[in-house]
Amino acid sequence: MQSVLLDGKKLSIKIKQELKQRVQYLQSKYNKKPTLATILVGNNPASETYVNMKVKSCQEIGLGSIKIHLPETTTTKELLKEIQNLNLDQNIDGILLQHPVPKHINERECFDAIQIEKDVDGVTTLGFGKISFGLEAYPSCTPAGIMKLLEEYSLDVSGKHSVVIGRSPILGKPLSMLLLQKNSTVTICHSKTQNLPEIVKQADFVFACCGIPKFVKGDWLKKGCVLIDAGYNPGNIGDADFESCKEVCSYITPVPGGVGPMTIAMLLSHTVIAAEKKLNQI
To answer: How far is the C-alpha of 241 from the C-alpha of 228, rounded, in Å?
Structure first.
């Protein structure tokens, strides 16, 4: 079987082109440039690279971008004050606190300090709760990007068995809730799951998001299933063994070029929506 590649890079370009037009409309009609504020704490090189990518993506579609780089010694109290200033700033539509922050900072408290209307990265517990209840909020960007990718290729999870491998608060858990909203039957697996290959073998849709390179093997999969690899490990390696899996799947995401570009596209989309909502309330 020859798998069809789910091209997240191509779809992300299409989304960005549409967003660029919406940004231009907001500027022409309201003289308003939607703006994303990104907070980076410390000197993690990978985090700095991710933040720069996000800033560049904002520039590509005409979004305003404010980058706040705080020193490694920043306290929880100081970071909370910075977030509160951004909450109060009417020119800021979205706030992103880059994960991870230095270990001495209470990251969860800082995430939850972000105003729900500006939580475009989908990191607050309130946002997760709303998504779980089918209420309006911005979902975490990677799960949102995965759902958009499935929609683009007309891959319907309704009534199908989805196995999610991973339970992180910004990927596995919110993805599972979004799949439930689409009427999928969801099994969440994790490091303590027994007989994992047997469970995966039952799945129509497999979502690999455990952070372990080449973890999911081709002989775990049911013939014709859909495999979404949300992993990104050193060396551009996903959480699934692509070579063995592509022989079994009907559809599969490449790494890179699959889920990754969709994550940033959703961040930009959420920021534009936040600006549109604010202007419609004026």
So the answer is: 12
CATH of the domain at 165: 3.40.50.720
Backbone angles phi, psi at 161, to 5 degrees: -90, 120
Instruction: Tokens 């979404």: give the residue.
Output: 228
Does 78 fall in a domain? yes
> Does residue 225 form part of some domain?
yes
User: Tens digit of pLDDT for each residue in 26-80?
Assistant: 999 999 999 999 999 999 998 999 899 999 999 999 999 999 999 999 999 999 9
Rounded CA separation 7/119 (Å) = 27
Q: How many CA atoms lie within 13 A of 45 on its CB side?
A: 0
Given the residues 54, 118, 160, 246, the one annotated as active site:
54
pTM metric for this prediction: 0.96
CATH code: domain of residue 64: 3.40.50.10860
**Of 7, 119, 121, 239, which residue is the catalytic one?**
121
> Total structural domains in the chain?
2
Q: Is 98 a catalytic residue?
A: yes
Which of 32, 93, 98, 246 is the catalytic position?
98
Per the annotation, the verdict on 29 as an active-site residue is no
Q: CA triplet 129, 100, 71: central angle to 5 degrees?
A: 125
- Catalytic, 59? Answer no
Listed residue (235, 212, 211, 239) closest to 227, CA to CA: 239
